[in-house]
Amino acid sequence: MLNFPKSTEFNKRIPKQKFYENIAVTPAMKRAFVEQIKIVYWRNKIATTTLNLAAGGQVTEIEVVEVRLSAPELDESVLRQIDREIPYHILFLLEYEGKYRAVIGYKEAAAGKTTFKVDRYYSTDWMGEDNLPVHLEGLTLDAVYENFVRQIAGDALGTGESASLKDSVEQQKQREQLEKQIAALEAKIRKEKQPRKKFEMVQKAKMLKERLKHV
Fold this sequence. Notes:
By secondary structure, the chain is an alpha+beta fold. It contains 5 helices and 6 strands.
């Protein structure tokens, strides 16, 4: 898929039951797998054994997993469950009625750096497979993974010319937090009747907006 080199092709169907049978999952999680997913395919394996890439300090393999859906929405908890069961970095391709979305989790090393936890997911819009902005770029697996995240996240992470991927993600979190604070404050301002309190909140909102410009 995605015109990745033939050497990376794996094309193995994975029974979706594998992700919830013999595992303590909630009834809601099991229902999501049963009702939202048709088929799961392990499409590609991007590794030093399949491509002329140097090993990464964090990333040892990137698996490309196609998930064919029964409906256009998939619970994020399902992606997290698959990520827990496959101990590598994963590029998801969600398919519904011939359209695709690329989804990837930003993963950080957990305790002891032997496992990874997903911090958050980034996703493209629905589009034709050939239009997905996902390309193999980089000389190491770390670089390929970082480029996948940036390609899929798009403007959400900025240009990334000077900041590391971790810093870009942290800056995005700060922006989101400030935007929430501003929205909550503006809602209070609209309801506030006392001029003095309203003035104080307006000044605080201005300060937060100014801070947002520099994040």
